[in-house]
TrEMBL record:
<dbReference type="GO" id="GO:0005697">
    <property type="term" value="C:telomerase holoenzyme complex"/>
</dbReference>
<dbReference type="InterPro" id="IPR018834">
    <property type="entry name" value="DNA/RNA-bd_Est1-type"/>
</dbReference>
<dbReference type="GO" id="GO:0070034">
    <property type="term" value="F:telomerase RNA binding"/>
</dbReference>
<dbReference type="InterPro" id="IPR045153">
    <property type="entry name" value="Est1/Ebs1-like"/>
</dbReference>
<feature type="domain" description="DNA/RNA-binding">
    <location>
        <begin position="272"/>
        <end position="371"/>
    </location>
</feature>
<feature type="region of interest" description="Disordered">
    <location>
        <begin position="1"/>
        <end position="96"/>
    </location>
</feature>
<dbReference type="InterPro" id="IPR011990">
    <property type="entry name" value="TPR-like_helical_dom_sf"/>
</dbReference>
<dbReference type="GO" id="GO:0000184">
    <property type="term" value="P:nuclear-transcribed mRNA catabolic process, nonsense-mediated decay"/>
</dbReference>
<dbReference type="GO" id="GO:0042162">
    <property type="term" value="F:telomeric DNA binding"/>
</dbReference>
<feature type="compositionally biased region" description="Basic and acidic residues">
    <location>
        <begin position="1"/>
        <end position="12"/>
    </location>
</feature>
<protein>
    <recommendedName>
        <fullName>DNA/RNA-binding domain-containing protein</fullName>
    </recommendedName>
</protein>
<dbReference type="Pfam" id="PF10373">
    <property type="entry name" value="EST1_DNA_bind"/>
</dbReference>
<feature type="compositionally biased region" description="Polar residues">
    <location>
        <begin position="49"/>
        <end position="70"/>
    </location>
</feature>
Length: 386
């Protein structure tokens, strides 16, 4: 029987009955194996520089000798314990996250001195703002206009006053402050003074100088709005005041926006949001509903609702009586355009309130009520929706 020749392929192919031997570890790989890292630490290339070289290489020995200092500095002296624990390794590891340093407590005397110093500087800047604003508002000469540098200086002055107020609130409302120190802001009416002298008086000056002051007014509105938003987040003790101020700043922004309808709608929504939030916190304050009524234009039904509410709450807003007349006058003597905005029922509903509030055209009260009480289906058919 002829013997079976062994081909080169048969020598290379292992027998199926034998399992393949595990791959052998490369000799070169042993020289570059990373050591097992210490628990709780991260591997870094610098930490592995020495171990990645072969121990018997001259370059490694030389580098070890050169890297060994002849004398150790005081902070590198060995610890008393002979063996270093894993906790000690983690403390000396440069890759370990450093904890937040503890803040040193401040004493009441230091806090009082800080508040006094801030208030002294605040009063100086405040008196300067009052003096300049009054002087500028009293000028009726149209030729006496402020240039760009003068407007920038006034904005910087009022910005400084806002920052002084912010520092005062942070210091007086500090968590370590005593109750007496916390009451200082309310005692001296600091939120109202900040709005009156730091924001409102200057905004009125800018408004009376429009359109020349438009760009400066926009800049200051954004500046004041960001400061009020910061106070709303960091000084919650006067949250109600900050909310209403944010709504007022939104109304100023609406008043000077004539070009971009989308911007006007966005700022209307922003201002309405803050006033609604304020009215939720103070539902008995009629002033807030009056602001919402102004933002509701030209929706006559919403205006009627908010004006009525501003007069009927526990703390009514007297100016709403004059404002609601501006809503009723066009209804009492409607133009074709005014009447087309409202359906027959809506127009009759508002007019009934106008007649009863003003006591005018009382002879038309019954007919107006009949128009409102007309069957709804007929009203829908008349307006073209049925």
């Amino acid at each position: 029987r002829p013997s079976r020749r062994s081909t080169p392929d048969s020598k290379r192919q292992p027998s199926r009955s034998c399992s393949p031997s595990p791959p052998k570890k490369s000799k070169a790989r042993a020289e570059f194996d990373r050591p097992s890292p210490v628990k709780g630490t991260l591997w870094t290339p610098d930490a592995d520089t020495m171990t990645s070289q072969r121990p018997y290489e001259k370059s490694n020995i030389t580098s070890q000798v050169l890297s060994t200092p002849t004398s150790k500095p005081p902070h590198c002296q060995p610890r008393t314990s002979t063996s270093r624990s894993s906790t000690q390794v983690e403390e000396n590891d440069p890759t370990e996250l450093i904890k937040q340093p503890e803040t040193r407590p401040i004493s009441q005397d230091q806090l009082v001195a800080e508040v006094k110093g801030i208030y002294a500087g605040l009063v100086m800047v405040e008196s300067k703002c009052i003096e300049i604003d009054n002087a500028q508002n009293s000028q009726n000469d149209p030729t006496n206009k402020l240039n760009n540098e003068q407007w920038q200086a006034l904005i910087a002055l009022h910005r400084t006053l806002l920052h002084e107020h912010y520092d005062f609130f942070l210091a007086s409302q500090h968590p370590s402050a005593s109750p007496a120190l916390r009451r200082l802001a309310s005692k001296y009416a600091m939120p109202a003074r900040m709005w009156r002298h730091g924001i409102h008086s200057f905004l009125e000056l800018l408004r009376h100088r429009l359109p020349a002051s438009l760009e400066h007014m926009l800049m200051f509105i954004y500046l004041a709005y960001s400061m009020m938003a910061l106070l709303y987040e960091t000084v919650p003790a006067f949250e109600d005041t900050w909310i209403e101020c944010l709504g007022d700043l939104g109304r100023y922004r609406i008043a000077i926006e004539d070009d971009d309808i989308r911007d006007r709608e966005n700022w209307t929504a922003v201002s309405r949001h803050w006033y609604s939030k304020a009215s939720d916190k103070a539902p008995t304050t009629g002033r807030l509903y009056h602001h919402l009524a102004i933002l509701a234009r030209p929706n006559a039904l919403q205006q009627l609702y908010y004006y009525t509410k501003s007069l009927c709450v526990a703390i009514p807003f007297g100016s709403a009586r004059e404002s609601i007349i501006t809503l009723f006058d066009p209804i009492m003597a409607p133009t074709p355009n005014q009447q087309s905005r409202l359906s027959v029922a809506e127009f009759a509903f508002v007019k009934v309130h106008a007649v009863m509030f003003s006591s005018k055209q009382m002879d038309k009260l019954q007919s107006t009520m009949d128009d409102f009480l007309r069957p709804p289906r007929q009203d829908i058919r008349l307006t073209g929706h049925g």
